[in-house]
Design goal:
With 242 residues, this protein is α/β, with parallel strands linked by helices. Helices cover 52% and strands 10% of the residues.
């Protein structure tokens, strides 16, 4: 029996539409060649469906968890010499390059110091960065669960995960009070103690410390506006690229 494009052999299973379409545009192939090609086309269609299902599944993961997962995957694939870790401020403001070197921004909105402690070792093992920018603390200042002594210990633990890296420690930004209820929830006395701890750790370790500005430009009292992000980067460049 002759074989026409798109026609099935007797007893065969129906082909997906994509496979029938592909076979229809292979008129120069013999029946045997098309039979050999059919499993590959079916496999291709199945792979496409699997990719679509994976993309759908990823979109079902909560945003913060998805950003953390993406950061881990990028760290496995990247050769960037600079790693930036922190919270949503770092996520928004970290530059793509620092002192002429590519930056992998692995910051995750909502992260607290405990989150960085749990993620830092994995990021270091995948990337082994020459330089690490650490900018964390704002979320810890909202109804603090750690004493400042505990917070300082956890910060040192993060640093210990990067024994071969040059460290850049960014102080916690002040807030614009009155811009949002959340901004007013930050304990400013706690922030002052965090920044004092960061300066002390910088002095102990020889790390570069990026001082906090006196005032900030934000969209909601905490997260930097475009101008605020530029200021954040300018302070980082000024301290780190001397």
């Amino acid at each position: 029996m002759s074989f026409c494009p798109g026609q099935q052999d007797a007893g065969s299973q129906p082909l997906p539409a994509r496979s029938r379409f592909a076979l229809a545009f292979a008129p120069t192939l013999s029946a045997r060649q098309r039979a050999r090609l059919r499993p590959w086309l079916v496999a291709l269609a199945v792979a496409g469906m699997a990719a679509a299902l994976l993309a759908l599944a990823l979109h079902q993961i909560p945003l913060r968890a998805r950003i953390a997962l993406e950061a881990d995957v990028r760290a496995r694939l990247s050769n960037a010499p600079v790693l930036a870790i922190g919270d949503s401020i770092t996520y928004q403001a970290a530059p793509r390059s620092l002192c002429g070197e590519e930056v992998l921004n692995a910051a995750v909105p909502g992260d607290k110091i405990d989150d960085l402690v749990s993620r830092a070792g994995s990021l270091e093992s995948h990337l082994q960065p020459a330089r690490v920018v650490i900018a964390i603390g704002a979320n810890d200042a909202v109804k603090p669960k750690h004493s400042i002594a505990e917070w300082r210990t956890l910060y040192r633990e993060i640093i210990s995960r990067f024994p071969g890296s040059q460290l850049v420690l960014v102080e916690v930004n002040p807030v614009e009070h009155g811009r949002s209820p959340y901004a007013d929830m930050l304990d400013q006395s706690y922030v002052a103690q965090q920044n004092a701890a960061i300066r002390a750790i910088g002095a102990e370790t020889g790390a570069v410390v990026v001082p906090a500005p006196q005032s900030v430009s934000t969209t909601d009292g905490i997260h930097p506006s475009r101008a605020g992000a530029l200021l954040w980067r300018a302070r980082l460049f000024s301290a780190a690229c001397r």
